[in-house]
Amino acid sequence: MSEEEPVPVRRRTVLKVATAAGTAAAAGAAVPVTGAAEGATAPAATVPPTVPAGASVEITLSVNGARRRVAVEPRVTLLDALRDRIGLTGTKKGCDRGECGACTVLADGERIKSCLTLAVMRQGSRITTVEGLARGDDLHPVQAAFIRHDAFQCGGCTPGQIMSAVACIAEGHDGSDDEVREWMSGNLCRCAAYQNIVAAVRDAGREMRG
Amino acid sequence: MRAFGYTAPADPATAVRLAAQPGTTYVAGGTDLLNLMRDGAEDHEHLVDINRLDLAAVTADDAGLHVGGLARMRQVAEDRRVRTGFPVLSQALLASASPQVRIMASIGGNLLQRTRCGYFRDPGSACNKRVPGSGCPAVEGQNRMHAVLGGSPHCIATHPSDLAVALLALDAVVRVLGPDGARQIPVGELYREPGDTPHLENTLRPGELITAVDVPGGPLAQRSRYRKLRDRATFEFAVVSVAAAVHLRGGRVRDVRLAFGGIGTRPWRSPEAEDALRGRALTAVAVAEAGRALVRGAQPRQHNAFKVELVQRALTGALHEWGALR
Amino acid sequence: MSRLVGRDVARVEGRAKVTGAARYAADQPVAGVLRGFLVLSTVARGEVTRIDTGEARGGPGVVAVYTHRDMPRLAVPEGFYVKGFLPMQDARVYHNGQPVALVVAETFEQARDAAARVRVEYRAETPVTALADAAGQAYLPPPFHGEPNEVIRGDTGAALAAAPVRLDVEYRAPAHHHNPIEPHATTAVWDDGRLTVYESAQGVNATRQMLAAALGVPPANVRVISEYLGGGFGAKGLVWPHTLLNAAVAREIGRPVRTVLTRAQMYTSNGHRAEFHQRLRIGATRRGVLTGIEHTSTAQLSRTDQSVFNSSIATHTLYACPNVHVRQLGADLDLPTSSFMRSPELAAQFGLETALDELSHRTGVDPVDLRLRNHADAGPGKHLAECYRMGAAEFGWRRRERRPGATRDGDEYVGWGMATETHTYGNFEASARVTVGTDGRVQVAVATQEIGTGTYTVLSQVAADAVGVPLDRVTTRIGDTDLPPAGLSVASSTMPSVIPSVDRAGQDARAAVIRLAVADSRSPLHGVPPERVVTDRGRLVDSADPSRSDTYRAVVGRHGRAVPATAAVRNTPGHTYGAVFVEVRVHHRYGRVRVTRVVGAYDPGRVLNRRTLRGQVIGGVTWGIGYALTEHTVVDRATGRVVNPNLSTYLVPVNADAPPSVTALFVDQPDPGSAAMGAKGFGETPMTGVPAAIGNAIFHATGRRLREVPFTQDKLLL
Questions:
Q1: Which of B5, A48, B284, B302 is nearest to C130 (CA)?
Q2: Does residue B237 fall inside a structural domain?
Q3: CB contacts < 8 Å between A and B, how many?
Q4: Which residue among B21, B100, B104 sits closest to A28, beta carbon to beta carbon?
């Protein structure tokens, strides 16, 4: 099994293993199960690794440049894996429905809403969160521009705004105020610091392009 | 959301075999599925992650455009061949969702996303689509965003996909792979009207996977446009939308395709409106007739009657703004 | 000496907020914390007849499932808790979305899953959920916190009968929800009878009091911590059931429990701006001078509480009208209790300021002139007339075409509208401690809150000036009941309430250090009369002989222990004013409205920080756009369920909805009545007039008068 494959692991307690097995059986025996025990008998070429319902799987993510191994049930979103399992709470849960953008992170360099993806689907991905932007004491140009332009008030949406802004600039969608307004509209700011967000994104974009 | 099992197969045949099992469904972008499961509007025991399948390519040839079922919304929207040869697709995609979701969401998933009817998304409410036979509170309730065409006493929910409207206008065909092999379904035959069975939204069979969408090219596709009206400036589903492709020759409509979003229980093609225009000079009178043909038979409810008027204006405006109408 | 106050100072907590280091309530790491998840009722009225928790209890990781049968009995607290009842104490259901069970499990996913497996059966009664269905049931509720719901001045009936110009108009607004980006989050940690709660709270002390009262523990045994709030807007000003229930079950279980509301749950769990109908009868002279105003409104109340939050105070305070009759009626519906929501005067102000525009059109008197003709003098602290003048000049108002519907630009009609803005800000007792450390650093400590308005920053500015140190030597600690007590961060009261005490404590600390220095034989200032010592950027200097100086660090360092000073200075509540001018564009075919240009001129008293003040203006303007154009809590009339409990169909304005151009002007004259260095409470002012200004501009653009928000395109198919 390569490093890129999710590795199914058993739950930590006997009770939970029993429950998980029961659920898996109820779910239908036709679902191929590959685990530590059954793996040897399964033809690896045709049967992909399966995580049974109720079991956790250990995945590897590169988070802000650090390799993180984390055990998650398949139903755990990337957002909850970051916040509850890895302890990176900079990424915010505003709606848990992809409607506010506070949970925006970069996955392999692209902005995504981390509440709308399962952690297990991101096995092997490079994830960048708001905690991973600054280099020591040096803020990322977008972070610095957000302070300079007062592009936030309460700060609840700010990590998502900043990650979205980093991507917006990388995508080249910061050519005009109107373009930024459209391409930053996936991130709600209830304090409505919108004009200042637009100014910060444009300023940071100019700075980053030199 | 229950604890579900998870498999990420590497080949379509395995994916289809797995997904044909009861209680199993596919996940690609996950951008709608996760909300459906969190809300309790859907409940699956096992997810088959299809992101490892090699179905994300976008190609073009003499027959037209071929979009892999796993191509992402942004990828298609920004494809140069799509922008020039099939502008309605690019415009519909860019008018959809948010930049983040367009990066995540697949074309196949977009076509199979489910209605945003608030009653459907709330297990605390009745809904025939979610729980057959439980009733439709929207018919007599809060229905401002609901359909005026294609509804039944059992359901008046709109289909939310902008892309589907655009594909419908271009006579696109969906290629699917299922336990019984591959087949093709015209987009116009992919969606069902609710009738007595609003829980059956499409004509896919259990386990079938959208592997690609084929879009015929040509003058119509090149002269296609999408116009979406909504209450917020952006990042919202359509109140009404229009996908129009018009081929004019000698001042007359040689061919035309008109499809609409926000007004129908499925992406709404209007042959009646097209017939009202075909062969005629594209005058304000002709377009007004087409608009009336479109909404003939419309069944407005308490809060959505304005859509009958607004969609006709959207049609007029769309043709006008694009210079097709003088 | 003031070096920082009044300046455009960047937020001192900015770095924490842009790096993810700022810890919000749900971010606090708590070892072994369990996760709670609420089960909410699916009927609006009736009672629970059966709850089956068996499957939920059997779920993996589930620790407990509480229902009304076994939830610890709690006292209904009074004061900062307004629901009038506590859920899960009996079987009764008063509104849809009321907590009926609380599941506690090891993980969030397990708790949520188990919550979905709690089966509840009800005996349901038919609810009444819309004001339109409660006609004839409106009544005059008792005074709200001492404020009467009926105000009578003069003889309005006679004035209306005699008025040469009469207006009789009705306006309507649906319910709205605060929707801060950060959901409510509460974490309860018990340790030997002492409770620590990490809470997203606009009032840590209010939360402490309500917890103590509900749980029957001494307030001294309850600590509430709220370092940062991801927005509140009133939703977190009062205390709501989940906080009390979560703490109660944590005590039962003996482990920390964290409950975070889902976005959908927030639509029934923390109040809202009540549905509001109003009728205005106005009498005036042909020159537009008001002779009588009768303002009768009906707000949605609940079955369990009669608080009217949508205040009509401006109707009898803003203009000089001799005859006024205000009645704030309410109707009890089977809906959750409402609450304060940003600028609670807004709902009534929308009516008043729209009616004045209608009067302006009727009389032919320019809207600004009409307001000036009715200007009420209120002493030297009111600069509203100056706001009209500044705003109109900046906006170019005098170039306005008089006729409605006369200006078209491409596919859009262009209209200009204006309205007066006014807000009544509150005041709470507050004490503050300023400490100069042995390292010369200054610490401000006060149990107030940062809700995004700039509390950390402005308090740091004030303390830095009071002590005489650079801003980067100041650390401000707030949001913790262990700190000197202060009140709620609601009603724009934070700055006017807290600043006087911070300023005084800072000056006292400064004086104490000066006394130390002049008494210290090791100080170059030894023997200098204290009043001769001035402070500047961390130095203490003899003003008569600048060669003699010392530093805070040296003086307090030699002293060997920090020098604290505590002060409690009471300020008074008051009013702020402004005038807002708006340009809208209305699509001729689709009716879609865009707000393209806004100028606001305000009288906030003395400007303490131009940057954070401007932030409140751009925020308030966009909130006004949400109220006027997009926001609308949609309630199913038959069931009382919210149909759009999310952020994709409840339309909070997005970036592209915000006006490209907003200009904020400030009179910047200290209010002689304010102990907060002349500053007034401002934050909620620049929203109050925006919806009316937008509606007035739509009328000017199109000739169509809209009297019910939101002004969606279907209402403007011209």
A1: B302
A2: yes
A3: 132
A4: B21
Q: Between the CA of residue B9 and those of A104, B12, B53, what are the distances in Å? A: 27, 8, 7
Lowest mean pLDDT: which of B131-145, C276-290, C374-388? Answer: C374-388
Cβ atoms of residues C681 and C495 within 8 Å? yes
Total beta-carbon pairs less than 8 A apart between chain B and chain C:
99
Tell me which DSSP letter residue B224 carries. Answer: E
* DSSP H or E stretch at residue C190: strand C185-191
Tokens of A74: 């398949």
Residue ranges of domains in chain C, CATH in brackets: 25-126+181-231+236-269 (3.30.365.10), 340-426+574-716 (3.30.365.10), 427-567 (3.30.365.10)
Cβ atoms of residues C317 and C266 within 8 Å: no
In this prediction, residue C3 carries a pLDDT of 87
- Taking each helix axis from N to C end, the angle separating C455-467 and C494-519, rounded to the nearest 10 degrees, works out to 30
How far apart are alpha carbons C476 and C455 in whole angstroms? 9
Can you give the pLDDT at residue A3?
44
C-beta atoms of B142 and C113 within 8 A: no
The amino acid sitting at A21 is A
To the nearest whole Å, the CA of C568 is away from the closest chain B CA by: 47
Q: How would residue C324 be classed by pLDDT, with cut points 50, 70 and 90?
A: very high
Coil/strand/helix, residue C182: coil
Q: How many residues does chain B have?
A: 326
Active-site residue set of C: 684
Contact: C107, A84; criterion CB under 8 Å:
yes
Q: Is the pLDDT of residue C673 over 60?
A: yes
Residue of B1, B94, B142 best to disrupt the C interface, most CBs of C under 10 A: B142
- Which amino acid is residue C245, in one-letter code? L
CB–CB contact B3 A121 (8 Å): no
Q: How many domains, in total, are found in chain B?
A: 1
Which of B9, B100, B234 has the CB atom closest to A111's CB atom? B100
* Domain CATH for B296: 3.30.390.50
CA distance C377 to C521: 57
Q: How far apart are CA B20 and CA B36, in angstroms?
A: 20
What range does the domain containing B302 cover?
223-321
Average confidence (pLDDT) over C15-23: 98
Domain presence at residue B288:
yes
Residue B325 has a pLDDT of 57
DSSP, residue by residue, C498-566: HHHHHHHHHHHHHHHHHHHHHH-TTSTTTT--GGGEEEETTEEEETT-TT-EEEHHHHHHHH-S-EEEE
Neighbours of chain C (3+ CB pairs under 8 A): A, B
Domain for residue B260, yes or no? yes
pLDDT tier for residue A16 given thresholds of 50, 70 and 90: very low
Residue A153 clears pLDDT 70, i.e. is over it: yes
Residue B119 has its nearest CB partner, among C109, C594, C643, at C643
- What is the rounded (10 degree) CA torsion for C478, C483, C486, C492? 0
Residue C613: half-sphere exposure toward Cβ, Cα within 13 Å? 28
Chain B residues with CB under 8 Å of C712 CB are: 231
Report the alpha-carbon distance of residue C638 to residue A195 in Å, rounded: 41
Task: Establish if B9 belongs to a structural domain.
Answer: no
pLDDT at B193 over 60: yes
Q: Look at residue A45 and tell me whether its pLDDT is greater than 70.
A: no
Domains identified in chain A and CATH numbers: 7-132 (3.10.20.30), 141-209 (1.10.150.120)
Query: Chain A: residue nearest C35 by CA?
Result: A84
Residue contact B313–C651, C-beta within 8 A = no
In 3D, which of C282, C281, C349 has the Cα closest to residue C310? C349
The mean-pLDDT minimum among A7-21, B57-71, C283-297, C459-473 falls in A7-21
**What's residue B324's pLDDT?**
62
